[in-house]
From TrEMBL:
It holds the Pfam family DHquinase_II. This is 3-dehydroquinate dehydratase. Catalyzes a trans-dehydration via an enolate intermediate. Keywords: Amino-acid biosynthesis, Aromatic amino acid biosynthesis, Lyase. The record marks 19 as: Transition state stabilizer. CDD domains: DHQase_II. It is an enzyme of class 4 (lyase). Its EC number is 4.2.1.10. The keyword Lyase applies. Belongs to the type-II 3-dehydroquinase family. InterPro entries: DHquinase_II (IPR001874), DHquinase_II_CS (IPR018509), DHquinase_II_sf (IPR036441). Pathway: Metabolic intermediate biosynthesis; chorismate biosynthesis; chorismate from D-erythrose 4-phosphate and phosphoenolpyruvate: step 3/7.
């Protein structure tokens, strides 16, 4: 059986489509999930969103215990503050893609220092919601490379 790819979404991403559409667009989180599942093809996807830091950490632990194939994570505002999420990601032995809908480096200075980038295999930022499709395609390639 193919191992799942975990797609984890942090605080306020449940408001996609309504929250600051000039930055994040009008695509909803449900549409993002459908996009991820379509891009993954036959690879199972565990898709989660939480406004609670501990739930994201629990899902990272679950991915570790499930021997998941990879993690795509948009930690949202926790990107810049959560040492516990970074520490949990350090324990994951496979590819990690950090994802941001906006280009965090073109925004206010508070958004420039990602703690997650230090442990991520790759970072995707600024492609809007379609960045999730790009992240899934990249993850599938990373998984394939690791199998060879």
């Amino acid at each position: 059986m193919t191992k799942p790819i975990y797609v984890l979404n942090g605080p306020n991403l449940n408001r996609l489509g309504k929250r600051e559409p000039e930055i994040y667009g009008y695509t909803t989180l449900a549409e993002v999930e459908a996009m991820c599942r379509e891009a993954a093809g036959k690879t199972p996807v565990e898709f989660h969103q939480s406004n609670r830091e501990y739930e994201l950490i629990d899902w990272i632990h679950e991915a570790i215990d499930a021997d998941a194939a990879g993690i795509i994570i948009n930690p949202a505002g926790l990107t810049f503050t959560s040492v516990p999420i970074m520490d949990a990601l350090k324990m994951f032995p496979r590819p990690i893609i950090e994802l941001h809908i906006s280009n965090i480096h073109r925004r206010e200075a508070i958004y420039h220092n990602s703690l997650m980038s230090r442990v991520a295999t790759a970072v995707i930022a600024g492609l809007g919601p379609k960045g999730y499709r790009t992240a899934m395609a990249a993850m599938l390639e990373l998984i394939q490379e690791n199998r060879q």
